[in-house]
């Protein structure tokens, strides 16, 4: 079977600290995979190795047919195909919302202005922020900013999207709007999505697979139904009972 | 509210600061004027047994710091020593000379501030300066000349009288003013002191350097590729300067000058410093 | 004091013009050069980083007067360079080392998420720098840049040492002639205030407007 992302015996260290142990993981095109686990388990780090924001020290990581661990790989090329949505949005503070969405397509993809604007307008509509194009990020709420960040990633027409705790920095009443946009993307398109999250209901609703991580290791890799009904490890059971009693 | 208060205090502080500054300036000035009216330099010198001289530290032959001793040496310094000794003899007491380095632009201010009693710093006697300080009788017959690089082909100052030529002078010297008369079309730039003016000439910043001939001869002694040309075109003798109104001191200095000329000391000093300079006859200077 | 002004009006104005010219050239030059060297200092490339750091440390740690005299006395043997340009070039080099540090400080205080966001979006390091990080860094650097520019105007008095025809030089010439340094320097001080005052107000205004 084909794959879009493949980890083979990947190790990562911060100095002496072993962050990722023996990671073996294959993601297929179109899959929606949720990564969960206690904080400090290495979920975000694993996600960030995929588009080269973090380097790996051992093993092999192939993304979209390119070897991320090799120095020769053009990471800029790779990043146009793999978008990322951050916990703290990372919108360009010096640009308007429209410019946030249109900048990378314009200067990286050399998309012409009319087409670029058309796509940006469609995306703004898709995330439900049609009239906000002229504003600056500082004028939006957290939930609005995150939806713009998603639109910005989508504008590059990526094959895969990486979500790094996209709702953790939001006020509770903002979470719903972001999740519904994410649900729309993961279910209605052929997009491959990897989501690091603590939103168990969202995981149950949209994920094809759940990866459970603790202490830099992948402890479980199961279908969503299996994971939530019958976790294999004691560690996962503990974690689930904690988050669900929350 | 508190921010507004802060602003008001800041404003008040600024006003107080300005008032204090202006006040102390005015006070300082008045006190200084009062002091200069009541002081008697000769009396002070006699009671302190010290005569404080301002001398140059960058002028070869007149006052140049010797790297060996760290003291200024030159004709001006020897003059100051001899005059001090002579005054001491005349007054029947002991007086030690003490030297402070001055620059061309600071020498008058130091007299005015009572930091020195007199200045022996290759200083031309001019009517403008004589309004502010008192001069002794002339002690050195200087005149303005120009110094050029030997390979420049320049023979006299008239050749420099065109807008393409640049003449280097020294800030606060009479030469700056007189050059305007003799080469009005030339560009004139002023350097802070003699040695900087000379290095400007050497690095090609100007075609000629102008100041008193004796100073220029000092540079000839130091460097073989320059020459004083065209003779002197002004007559501007040097005088020893004291604060305005110090008539007692002025008389004492003039008396001392007359005595050292009469007993041959003066000629000896002239010969010591200017006896072996190519192109200069020291006997001319003693006339 | 009024008499000094009226007697030497054209001399003072000439000096004022040269001081303004030197300040403007110095400001633009040091802003451009300072930005270039700040970027080199922050560059991922080790060689560029070395050059940038070496430049900044060198010119930041030697007196402006030494640089000025170097150009006036030494460099002029090779290339004809007058006092005004010797002083102004020295002013640019000296100030740009401080400007580079201001800009580096500004860029370093931009949220690292801005760079990460841009790189994840497919922009190269250079594109991310030009479009996203540098504009924000400049904004953060404005207050300290303002201080450097005011220093630059005042430091332009270095021209007086090499006959650069600026305000300070004219002040020395005037006081050498009228033998009244006290009042002459007060008059010249006021002319410097005429330059630094509005510059200071303008930088404050810029700072407030961009906040």
Mind explaining what this structure looks like?
The complex is a heterotrimer of chains A (246), B (287) and C (211). By secondary structure, chain A is of the alpha/beta class. Chain A is 38% helix and 25% strand. Chain A has helices spanning 43-50, 75-81, 97-107, 113-126, 142-154, 172-188, 200-206, 224-229, 234-244, and strands at 5-14, 17-27, 32-36, 58-63, 66-67, 82-85, 160-164, 192-196, 209-214, 217-223. In chain A, a hairpin with a 2-residue loop joins β4 and β5. The termini of chain A are far apart. The radius of gyration of chain B is 23 Å and the shape is globular. Helices cover 45% and strands 18% of the residues of chain B. Chain B contains eleven helices and 13 strands. Chain B is of the alpha/beta class. Chain B has two domains: 42-141 and 237-285, 3-Layer(aba) Sandwich (D-Maltodextrin-Binding Protein, domain 2), CATH 3.40.190.10; 144-229, Periplasmic binding protein-like II (D-Maltodextrin-Binding Protein, domain 2). A five-stranded mixed beta sheet of chain B has the order 5-1-6-13-7. A five-stranded mixed beta sheet of chain B has the order 10-9-11-8-12, with helices on both faces. Chain B has a three-stranded antiparallel beta sheet with strand order 2-3-4, covered by helices on one side. In chain B, α6 (174-182) links the parallel β9 and β10. The model of chain B has no long low-confidence stretch (mean pLDDT 86). Chain C is an all-alpha fold. Chain C contains nine helices and no strands. In chain C, α2 (9-42) crosses α5. Chain C is 82% helix and 0% strand. The radius of gyration of chain C is 20 Å and the shape is elongated. At the B-C interface, β10 and α7 of B face α4 and α8 of C.
Describe the structure concisely for a colleague.
Chain A has helices spanning 43-50, 75-81, 97-107, 113-126, 142-154, 172-188, 200-206, 224-229, 234-244, and strands spanning 5-14, 17-27, 32-36, 58-63, 66-67, 82-85, 160-164, 192-196, 209-214, 217-223. Chain A is an alpha/beta fold. The mean pLDDT of chain A is 90.
Principal-axes shape call of chain B: globular
Major sheet summary line of chain A: 6 strands, mixed
CATH superfamily of chain A: P-loop containing nucleotide triphosphate hydrolases
- Summed up, the helix count of chain B is 11
Q: In order across it, which strands form the biggest sheet of chain B?
A: 5-1-6-13-7
SSE order of chain B in H/E notation? HHEEEEHEHEHEEEHEHEHEEHHH
How many angstroms separate the termini of chain B? 82 Å
**Number of separate domains of chain B:** 2
Order of helices and strands of chain A: EEEHEEHEHHHEHEHEEHH
Share of residues in helices of chain A:
25-40%
Annotated CATH architecture of chain A: 3-Layer(aba) Sandwich
Mean pLDDT of chain A: 90
Instruction: Count every beta strand of chain B, where a strand is a DSSP E run of 2 or more residues.
Output: 13
Greatest interface and its residue counts?
Answer: B-C, 24 and 22 residues
Protein structure class of chain A: alpha/beta
Strand content of chain B: 15-25%
The dominant shape of chain A is globular
Could you say what the CATH topology of the largest domain in chain B is called? D-Maltodextrin-Binding Protein, domain 2
| Overall radius of gyration of chain A | 18 Å
